[in-house]
Specification:
Strand content: 15-25%
Structural class: alpha/beta
Distance between the termini: 31 Å
Helix content: 25-40%
């Protein structure tokens, strides 16, 4: 295992390893070590006395990034400080703090994390955990950081709050008498104008207050799309939840889970709250694993979540999936779904992983150490995500003096790695360019060398730092014939 810190990204590392590439003719930036395909090297990203961020690559399988904490608080620390190419777009001004050994007040934290662009960290009820302190240290001067505590003093004690204030942090507690009230307090702390929309309607998620899985897999959507996450009893809609929906001017509700979690009667009550039966929808599967898959499909199809990256957490306990939610929802390469697993791979999860396998898939995130998800299960997930089809890698040196039509920047330079998959009619690219000005566009043209032919594929435009990564497929006008011509 190695730590991915390459400017061209983990996908290019995997493709290069598949081709047994030994060197690059044009190196824009040094690559992180590419492990031999004969074995998987192991390098830790943090001090060995703590948990580690481990990346498995170099064995012809999809790379995986594991947040292998020594405990739930340490896993949260690692997730919040992820240094890889798939880190989250956190701001450093706020962190959300939840109780680490019980879930009720923590469930609503995903919405606060999205509003604040903040990670979720964990601590026990009655003391500041050392790994919480290490995580906070990562974010800098306490005077510049606000900590949002989820729940009342039964969740996180007044002593913990006082200790944090004594350290110099600003503390804002958002809690109520019950888990229902805490979720409502978290949601209504923000302006109704900040609520996210789906199909032009202000949207909230309502999940069971009596168990954690459905709320957790909805957490990435709550974070990324600013959908308040409110709670209900199985057979009765609490007044606090109905009032919060009204206060936030919610027009559409997504119910997380089946009728065993949230009854048909509560669904009818929600229809009355929003005033239209068509504006209450249920996202569910036959079990917690199937519900996670259903949310993943919805997130990709309707909310623009990435199909090139996925997150895996245990469905047997709450902390790892809770703290992974904001990371998944705020991922730099785009929000990505959370799937759940058991001691063995659930059929629903395994089938979904296999459906994602193509040449454009980038990386798998695994939350927790081997006690949460075994090494064997991680390997099984990587195998499921790895396509059996050949994924040819093409590379090109980019130079300004070859610009057609010119003139280009004489000393402009760059490198492009292109993976073309004719079966899926998809082209994926990693670009790195060095220009005096921000690039205006990137394309693949037809025509002989030195001829500016027509544009056949529009590629992602390099950002201000000169980097771009992404895929174009059938929805972008790419077909198998075009891809075959490229190969």
């Amino acid at each position: 295992m190695t730590v991915v810190n390459s400017l061209i990204g983990a996908s290019a590392l995997r493709r290069l390893a598949l081709l047994a590439a030994a060197a690059l003719l044009l190196a824009v930036a040094p690559l992180a070590g590419i492990a031999s395909a004969d074995d998987v090297d192991v390098t830790d990203a943090e001090d060995e006395e703590l948990g580690t961020i481990q990346v498995s690559d170099g064995d012809d399988l999809i790379p995986s990034i594991r947040f292998a904490g020594t405990g739930r608080e340490d896993t949260a620390r690692l997730i919040s400080g992820d240094p890889t190419d798939f880190a989250a777009q956190y701001e450093t001004g706020t962190v959300v703090l939840a109780r680490g050994d019980d879930y009720p007040d923590a469930l609503a934290g995903s919405y606060a994390a999205g509003q604040e662009l903040a990670p979720i960290l964990l601590t026990p009820t009655d003391f500041v955990h050392p790994n919480l302190q290490l995580a906070l240290d990562h974010w800098g001067d306490p005077a510049d950081i606000e900590i949002v505590i989820l729940g009342g003093t039964a969740a996180i004690s007044a002593e913990v709050e006082e200790d944090l204030e004594d350290m110099g942090y600003t503390v804002d507690r958002r809690g109520g008498a019950t888990r229902i009230d805490t979720a409502a307090a978290v949601a209504t702390a923000y302006d109704p104008a900040d609520v996210g929309e789906l199909d032009g309607m202000a949207t909230a998620i309502v999940a069971s207050a009596e168990n954690f899985p459905d709320a957790l897999v909805a957490g990435a959507l709550s974070t990324s799309n600013n959908f308040p996450l409110l709670l209900t009893w199985q057979d009765e809609l609490p007044d606090a939840t109905a009032d919060a929906l009204d206060d936030l001017e919610i027009e559409q509700v997504i119910i997380a889970g089946g009728t065993v979690a949230v009854s048909a009667g509560v669904e009818t009550e929600l229809e009355g709250v929003v005033g239209d039966a068509d504006n209450v929808r249920r996202v569910s599967g036959p079990n917690r694993f199937g519900t996670a898959v259903a949310f993943a499909d919805m997130a990709v199809d309707e909310l623009g979540f990435s199909q090139e990256h996925v997150n895996l957490a245990t469905g047997r306990d709450f902390p790892d999936a809770l703290t992974l939610g904001p990371h998944a929802g705020l991922d730099y390469i785009g929000p990505s779904p959370i799937l759940l697993t058991d001691l063995a791979m659930p059929p629903e999860t395994g089938a979904h992983l296999e459906s994602l396998a193509d040449c454009g898939f980038e990386s798998l995130h695994v939350a927790g150490g081997s006690a949460a998800i075994s090494d064997e299960l991680e390997q099984e997930a990587r195998e499921a995500l790895t396509t059996a089809d050949a994924c040819p890698l093409l590379s090109a040196a980019l130079t300004g003096d070859k610009e057609v039509p010119g003139p280009g920047q004489a000393d402009g330079a760059g490198v492009a790695f292109v993976v073309a998959d004719a079966t899926a009619a998809q082209v994926c690219v990693d670009l790195s360019v060095d220009l005096d000005e921000v690039a205006a566009a990137a394309h693949i043209h037809t025509g002989a060398e030195g001829v500016a032919g027509g544009v056949v594929i529009t590629l992602p435009t390099p950002d201000a730092d000169g980097f771009a990564s992404g895929c174009a497929g059938p929805d972008d006008g790419v077909d198998a014939d075009i891809v075959s011509d490229i190969v």
